[in-house]
Each structure stands twice: as C-alpha cells, then as structure tokens.
C-alpha cells in the first residue's frame, strides 16, 4: 500500500479527532434542560451563528452532485447561488420576529412556532411529522455521500460502507453527547473550512489544471460554450430558484438556527456577514465545476469529479484537503438535521401526546430517536437508490408549502389552524399531483407549464386557500397580544403586559411534573 | 439590550432618520424585488446570453454574480439604515 493511499485516510481521521476534541472542550451541555439541548441556551453571537447557518445550508452534495451538474449542464447549476442569497433576504425579513416570539415563549423549532401562532397542537404535530418525512431523503443522501467521500478521498483505502459508518458514528456521538451546543461549535469549525479554506483548494486546482480561472473560462468558451448560458426552459430555472428561496427557511434545521442567537441584533448581523461569503464561495466552486469536461478523468468520474480534479492538481495532500472540505460540509448539515429531528420528535410529538413526561426523559427520547433513525438511514444508504438525489430536490416542492402559514402568520393577524392546514393539503396535493402526472422525470421540468414545476400552481393555491380560510374562520384568540409583544419587546425585559395576556390564554408544552 | 437611534446630525443620518418606516421598507423591498426580477422570466431572457464577456464570464454568469453581490450589499445597507434609525430590535 503506497503512502498516497494512506495519507488522505490519516488526515481525514486526524480531522475527525480534532472535531471530537472541539466537542469535548467547547461543546459540553451546560445543563440538562431542553433550552440547552435544543437551542444551546440561545447564547450565540452573530459570528458563530453565521457559520452554523452557512454550514447547515451548504451540504456535501454541493461539492459532488452540484459540482458535476455544473460540468454537464452548465450555467443552470448556478441557481444555487441565487436561491441562497435570496433566501438570506427572506431570513432577514422573518427571522427577527420569529426570534422574538421564540424568546418570549420558549420556542425551540418550527412546530413550536406553528403551535403558538395558530394555537393548535394538532397542526403542530402534523407539521412536525410532515417536515420530518420531507427531510428524510436528505439524511440518507448525506450518509451515502460520506461513503463516497471516504472511498474517493482515500483512493479506496476505506471501503464505502465502512466510511459511511465511521463518519455517521462520529456525528451521532457528539449529537447524543451534547445536542445543539456540540452542533454549533463543530459547525463553526466546519463552516470556516467549507466557506473559507475551500478557496485555497479552488485556487490550487484551477491554477495547476488550467492556469487559473481566466484560462479555465476561456477554454470552456472555446470547447463547451453551451455550458455558459442557461439552456432549455427558463421556467424550470425560475422554479428551482423560487422553491429554494421560499422553502429554504421552512426546513426544520434551518428554522431552528434562528433560535440559537443571543439577541435580535445578532440574528440580523448574520444576514450582513453571510451573503457575500456564500456568494463568492459557491460561485467559485461552480465555476471550477464548469471545467469538469476539460479533464477527461473528471468527466468520467461523475459525482467524484471534485476529488479527481484535486488529486490531479495536487496529489494525495490536496485530495485529503478536499476530502476534509466535503466532509465538513456534510457533517455540518446532517448534525443540524439530526439534532433538530430528535428534538422535534421528542418535544413536539411525544411530549405533546404525553405531557407528563419530564424534560430529562424528553431529552433521552430525543437521543433514542436520533440513534434509531440514523441506523435506519444508514441501512437505506447501503442500498442502490439511483433516484435519491432527484427525490431530494423534489422535496423542495413539498417544503415550500409550510412557508405560507409561516410568512402570513408572521405579518397578518388573520389566519387560523384550519386555513393553514387546508392550504398545505391543497397545495401539496396539487403540486405533487401535477408533478407525478406531467413531469417526464423525477424533479424535472414540465413542458405543459413552460418548464415550471408543480409548485408554480400549488403554492398560489395554498396561499389562496389560506386567505379564504382566514376570512371565513375566526382568528386566534390572543393574536392581537401576540403582535403587540413584538412591538413592545425591547430586547431586555420579558415582563410585558401583552406577553402575560398571551400566557393567560395559550397552553404551551411545559416541563413535566418531575422537573 | 436596547438599540438607540443614532442622534448625530450629519445630513445623511438626518435624512435616514427622517424617513417614514414604510418608505424604508418599500424602498428596500423594491430594490430586492427588482434585482430578483432580472433573474426570473421574462426579464431573464434578456440577461441569459453569452456576450458580452465580462472578466471572462459569459454575460449571464456575470449577471448572476452581480445580482448576488448587489443583494448582499443591499442587506448590509438595510442593516446600516436600521442601526441608524434604532430599529435593530
């Protein structure tokens, strides 16, 4: 076995050991409360928030599937840049108010928010289950990517299933150990790697393989000019940007990030620091991806193209570096997903149905749920699932339907649980009905809709049903006070008259009798 | 923690603090929506072209980059305006 086969594996394992050390030193639970386990005590400054938001957002598949997409389909892959940046505008608009309600009413995640806003435990449970199911393919995809990453980055030294198992076990370990606090501290490290350190790899690869980004683009313009414009229907381009922008902050783990901040100002600062960093990072990665077709070995490698180009440019050392980058991106997304999934299951489903269990027991149930799902997802990841990536993209068509009750619930006093649920049901049924009936392939454009996808019809219907239901039905009893709180809260005292009036009428999920 | 309105008397600060909240929201909303509209059909049809090349990028890729940078700048500007107006909380 050559040193070139062993070196990347050694460096990757050294990185995993570093993460473990970070968790042990900085990521321990400070107390055994759900506030600590679910939202790390709402204690983080904007610069920690920034990297956990970006780290959660940028998944490993960006460096595999989407990188390869740039090389085969060209400019359309850059939709990711646009929906990420547009999503941060959405974040700036909605996050401050969500954070305030979170602080005033001990909210941990999106189902909590829905429960409070619409005074409906039933709707909250249904939304929790729906969001978990819709998000499930992404965890399986992440675990699969871990296997590919370890195999490719170590030149086959670490077999696919073994690599999947090792990384999954590490992630599982620190989530179960310390919940959201360990997620945030590791995301800080991993976010820096996948958004800042990556520039070193990009510069190295582009220079050694092409002579720089300028020559790369010149060669693409000469040999594959079709990659430099968006081919085909711009309706599909618009659909994937819109669903990404609108649906982005409805994902459980992304929504949960909002509650980690220590105050509203820190929430807003994230939207100042994140955009330019993620724009430059993602754009440059995809520009490099345009060059995949110029390197025959990379063009044949499909989703492993980034690894192949790294090894060709810088040998086993750069291959290992790229392996760490992709590993960081993958771990920092799945840890947030799993930690949030565990909390939502235990707190918003189990404790909703059995209110008397203690918070400590709820935390332990969360850990059991996470382990059980990871084992199931690992098994699924060992199977051959050729449509998995497309299914994962298609889930955006579903998650967008949670956005109308969130957004309208934030800014409009009218609205009720029935309107929200009816809108979601009608929207989902319409969207997937159209997609299943008319889409030529999973997640593909629909010719009858000028390339748009089913959500272009389903989402407006969702909003229309919500609005009709809002006018026909009655408003939430304490909605005036709920909106008054936002205006009254100055970031200091929780002792607000409007808040007390809400508390007098809203029955929250509360600590159990044994707490 | 409270964020107090900036009370310095520069002309720009004075102009910003003198604006109605709705005007600020409308102006920035128009800015973001306007930029976004250029990457959506039908306007995107104009920008989705190869030439002219800018810094080696096809025009559409250059436009995607510029729109993203301008949106990022807009968010920073909005934060700055809100900090002057004492509206961060």
From TrEMBL, chain A:
<keyword id="KW-0813">Transport</keyword>
<feature type="transmembrane region" description="Helical">
    <location>
        <begin position="234"/>
        <end position="252"/>
    </location>
</feature>
<feature type="transmembrane region" description="Helical">
    <location>
        <begin position="419"/>
        <end position="438"/>
    </location>
</feature>
<feature type="transmembrane region" description="Helical">
    <location>
        <begin position="306"/>
        <end position="329"/>
    </location>
</feature>
<feature type="transmembrane region" description="Helical">
    <location>
        <begin position="450"/>
        <end position="472"/>
    </location>
</feature>
<keyword id="KW-1133">Transmembrane helix</keyword>
<keyword id="KW-0769">Symport</keyword>
<keyword id="KW-0812">Transmembrane</keyword>
<dbReference type="GO" id="GO:0015293">
    <property type="term" value="F:symporter activity"/>
</dbReference>
<feature type="transmembrane region" description="Helical">
    <location>
        <begin position="116"/>
        <end position="138"/>
    </location>
</feature>
<feature type="transmembrane region" description="Helical">
    <location>
        <begin position="189"/>
        <end position="214"/>
    </location>
</feature>
<keyword id="KW-1003">Cell membrane</keyword>
<feature type="transmembrane region" description="Helical">
    <location>
        <begin position="158"/>
        <end position="177"/>
    </location>
</feature>
<feature type="transmembrane region" description="Helical">
    <location>
        <begin position="46"/>
        <end position="69"/>
    </location>
</feature>
<keyword id="KW-0472">Membrane</keyword>
<dbReference type="InterPro" id="IPR038377">
    <property type="entry name" value="Na/Glc_symporter_sf"/>
</dbReference>
<keyword id="KW-0915">Sodium</keyword>
<feature type="transmembrane region" description="Helical">
    <location>
        <begin position="362"/>
        <end position="381"/>
    </location>
</feature>
<protein>
    <submittedName>
        <fullName>Na+/proline symporter</fullName>
    </submittedName>
</protein>
<dbReference type="InterPro" id="IPR050277">
    <property type="entry name" value="Sodium:Solute_Symporter"/>
</dbReference>
<dbReference type="GO" id="GO:0005886">
    <property type="term" value="C:plasma membrane"/>
</dbReference>
<feature type="transmembrane region" description="Helical">
    <location>
        <begin position="393"/>
        <end position="412"/>
    </location>
</feature>
UniProtKB/TrEMBL annotation, chain B:
<keyword id="KW-0472">Membrane</keyword>
<protein>
    <recommendedName>
        <fullName>DUF485 domain-containing protein</fullName>
    </recommendedName>
</protein>
<keyword id="KW-0812">Transmembrane</keyword>
<keyword id="KW-1133">Transmembrane helix</keyword>
<feature type="transmembrane region" description="Helical">
    <location>
        <begin position="53"/>
        <end position="81"/>
    </location>
</feature>
<feature type="transmembrane region" description="Helical">
    <location>
        <begin position="24"/>
        <end position="47"/>
    </location>
</feature>
């Amino acid at each position: 076995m050559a040193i070139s086969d062993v070196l990347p594996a050694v460096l990757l394992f050294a990185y995993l050991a570093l993460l473990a050390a970070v968790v042990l030193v900085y990521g321990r639970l400070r107390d055994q409360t759900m506030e600590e386990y679910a939202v790390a005590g709402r204690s983080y400054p904007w610069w920690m928030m920034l990297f956990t938001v970006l780290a959660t957002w940028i998944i490993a598949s960006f460096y595999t599937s989407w990188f390869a997409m740039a090389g085969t389909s060209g400019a359309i892959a850059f939709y990711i840049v646009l929906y990420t940046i547009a999503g941060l505008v959405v974040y700036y608009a909605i996050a401050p108010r969500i954070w305030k309600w979170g602080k005033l009413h001990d909210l941990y995640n999106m189902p909590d928010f829905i429960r409070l806003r619409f005074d409906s435990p039933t709707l909250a449970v249904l939304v929790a289950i729906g969001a978990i199911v819709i998000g499930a393919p992404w965890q399986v995809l992440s675990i699969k990517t871990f296997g590919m990453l370890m195999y490719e980055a170590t030149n086959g030294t670490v077999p696919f299933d073994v690599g999947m198992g090792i990384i999954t076990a590490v992630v599982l370990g620190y989530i179960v150990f310390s919940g959201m606090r360990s997620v945030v501290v590791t995301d800080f490290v991993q976010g820096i790697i996948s958004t800042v350190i990556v520039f070193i790899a990009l510069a190295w690869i582009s220079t050694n393989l092409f002579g720089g980004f300028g020559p790369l683009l010149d060669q693409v313009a000469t040999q594959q000019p079709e990659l430099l414009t968006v081919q085909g229907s711009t309706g599909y381009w618009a659909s994937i940007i819109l669903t990404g922008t609108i649906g982005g902050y409805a994902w459980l783990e992304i929504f949960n990030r909002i509650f980690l901040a220590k105050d509203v100002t820190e929430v807003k600062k994230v939207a100042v620091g994140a955009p330019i960093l993620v724009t430059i990072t993602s754009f440059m990665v995809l520009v490099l991806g345009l060059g995949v077709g110029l390197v025959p070995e990379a063009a044949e490698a499909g989703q492993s193209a980034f690894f192949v180009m790294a090894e060709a440019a810088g040998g086993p050392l750069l291959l290992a570096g790229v392996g760490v980058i992709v590993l960081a991106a993958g771990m920092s997304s799945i840890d947030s997903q799993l930690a949030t999934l565990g909390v939502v299951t235990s707190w918003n489903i189990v404790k909703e149905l059995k209110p008397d269990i203690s918070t400590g027991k709820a935390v332990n149930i969360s850990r059991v749920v996470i382990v059980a799902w990871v084992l199931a997802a690992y098994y699924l990841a060992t199977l051959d699932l050729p449509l998995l990536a497309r299914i994962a993209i298609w889930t955006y068509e579903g998650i967008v339907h949670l956005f109308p009750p969130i957004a309208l619930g934030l800014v409009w006093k009218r609205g009720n649980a029935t309107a929200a649920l009816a809108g979601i049901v009608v929207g989902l049924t319409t969207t997937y009905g159209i997609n299943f009936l008319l889409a030529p392939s999973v997640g593909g454009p629909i010719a009858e809709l000028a390339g748009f996808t089913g959500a272009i019809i389903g989402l407006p219907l969702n909003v229309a049903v919500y609005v009709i239901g809002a006018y026909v039905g009655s408003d939430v009893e304490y909605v005036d006070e709920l909106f008054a709180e936002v205006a009254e809260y100055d970031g200091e005292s929780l002792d607000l008259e409007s808040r007390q009036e809400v508390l007098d009428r809203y029955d929250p999920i509360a600590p159990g009798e044994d707490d | 923690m409270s964020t107090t309105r900036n009370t310095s008397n520069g002309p720009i600060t004075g102009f910003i603090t003198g604006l109605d909240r709705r005007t600020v929201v409308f102006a920035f909303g128009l800015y973001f929506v306007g930029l976004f509209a250029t990457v959506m059909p039908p306007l995107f049809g104009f920008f989705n072209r190869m030439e002219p090349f800018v810094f080696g990028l096809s025009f559409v890729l250059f436009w995607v980059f510029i729109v993203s940078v301008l949106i990022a700048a807009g968010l920073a500007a909005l934060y700055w305006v809100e900090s002057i107006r004492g509206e961060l909380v």
